[in-house]
Each structure stands twice: as structure tokens, then as C-alpha cells.
Design goal:
Length: 173
């Protein structure tokens, strides 16, 4: 059996290959008009989107209440989630320890706040939480082992209620 050799290429085929190699990108040089952007029909919504809910609305109903019992706003709900996310689990637990002896949740304008300290360690273990409801910002001051932490989750540091500022200043003495 004899091997079959390929058919010789014609001169026209060889010329076309040479042009294709020499002039890449010139194949099909007929200009084309740019395609117009496609218009996609969008569904018409009859419902107007609702304004974002105030995450602190329920917490505002707790003003005057202590964080104990079934409505413990420090351990459940949006504030608890925000605090644990801001501080991390270990520091969140330190915060809760430092708020064992606390006042009630208070309000000063649009700010909600709570302060407290660890039993028998008020001068070395204390805490304050300030919620700026208008800007959806949470600021935490934590005194532990004589060291201060002052953290906020969003934006530039917000003002503090006078009661919290006084507490922080007294802790520094």
C-alpha cells in the first residue's frame, strides 16, 4: 500500500494564504456601521419603593428601660448585631461585662445612649454606647484595665451627650 500524498495547492490558494499572512486583520475590509445600542424594555413598577426603615425605631421605644430581662437590647436586636460586628465577639463580651451596672437607655436629641461599669471596678472598667439615629452611627467608649477604647463604625467621630463626655473625663482623672 502506498501513502497518499496531499493534493498540490493551486496558485490561487497560495496567493490568498500569502496575503492573509502578510496583511492580518485585512480580511473582510468592508466597513460596517456601528450598531445602535439596544433598548431593553424595563418593567414598569407601580409601587413606589418604601423609604429605608429606621433601624433604631424599636430601640427608641426602650428609652427609660434598663437592658435586662426579655427586652435586652444589648444582647438581641439591631444594636447587639451592630456592637458585635464593630467590636468583635471578645470585645463585645468585655463591653457587656462593663455594662453590668448600667443606667437606663437615655435620649439626648437624636442620640440614644447608655453608660455603665463593671461591679466593684467602676474606675477601671466602664463603658458607654452612643447611637446617632439621624446618621445611623454607633460609637462605643470602653475602659478596660485602665485603657480607653473609643471606636465608631461610620464617618468622623460624632459628638457625645454631656453625660457621656463627663463620664469619660472623670475616668481619665
Amino acid at each position: 500500500m502506498r501513502p497518499v500524498s496531499p493534493a498540490p495547492l493551486s496558485r490561487a490558494v497560495l496567493a490568498a494564504l500569502a496575503l492573509a499572512v502578510l496583511l492580518p486583520g485585512c480580511v473582510g475590509t468592508v466597513p460596517t456601521a456601528p450598531t445602535a445600542p439596544r433598548k431593553v424594555a424595563r418593567p414598569v413598577l407601580n409601587d413606589v419603593p418604601a423609604a429605608p426603615a429606621n433601624p433604631w425605631g424599636n430601640l427608641q421605644t426602650q428609652v427609660g428601660n434598663y437592658p435586662v430581662g426579655g427586652s435586652d437590647f444589648l444582647r438581641a436586636g439591631p444594636l447587639a448585631e451592630r456592637l458585635s460586628g464593630l467590636l468583635g465577639l471578645a470585645n463585645y463580651n468585655v463591653l457587656l461585662d462593663n455594662l453590668q451596672v448600667s443606667g437606663p437607655l437615655r435620649q439626648d436629641g437624636s442620640m440614644l445612649y447608655i453608660t455603665g461599669n463593671r461591679p466593684d471596678a467602676g474606675d477601671t472598667a466602664a463603658a458607654a454606647i452612643v447611637i446617632h439615629a439621624a446618621t445611623d452611627t454607633v460609637r462605643v467608649w470602653l475602659l478596660t484595665g485602665g485603657e480607653e477604647w473609643d471606636v465608631q463604625d461610620l464617618g468622623t467621630p460624632k459628638t457625645l451627650p454631656a453625660h457621656v463626655a463627663t463620664m469619660m473625663e472623670n475616668a481619665r482623672r
